[in-house]
Design brief:
- It is a single chain.
- The chain is of the alpha+beta class.
- The chain has one domain.
- The protein is built from two helices and six strands, in the order E-H-H-E-E-E-E-E.
Length: about 120
């Protein structure tokens, strides 16, 4: 089970028509791929770097129906760093999406952006 990440910046996908976007999404070379790891011990988790001030879309390769995922910020994070936007599919209207972001004693407000591309 791969964790797949693709660049999703507005200046990349915003200028694409439907055919170009479909080709972009279908091209395996556009994705970073992180192998699934069975062990749930966070100390044995994967470190995945993200460049700040960019938007990324991620999903599991086989449309895994997950109930929980944990993303931790680096200890090198500073309050003056640019944001990172994470985009994922969310189609289950019965569930809630809760995001808690903490850094030591500083609490960072959840600035989840919600929109729908479907009418």
């Amino acid at each position: 089970m791969l964790f797949k990440i693709i660049k999703w910046d507005d200046d990349i996908i915003g200028a694409m028509d439907e055919i170009e976007l479909e080709a972009y999404l279908d091209d395996a070379d556009n994705y970073s791929k992180v192998p699934f790891k069975q062990n749930q011990d966070p100390t044995n988790g994967w470190a995945i770097p993200f460049v700040t001030n960019h938007k990324y879309k991620w999903h599991f390769a086989s449309a895994l129906d997950f109930e929980r995922i944990t993303l931790d910020m680096s200890e090198r994070w500073e309050a003056t760093d640019h944001p990172i936007y994470m985009v994922t599919n969310f189609t289950d209207q019965r569930a809630s999406v809760d995001l808690l972001v903490e850094s030591d004693s500083d609490y960072i407000a959840n600035e989840t952006l919600t929109n729908s591309t479907q009418e």
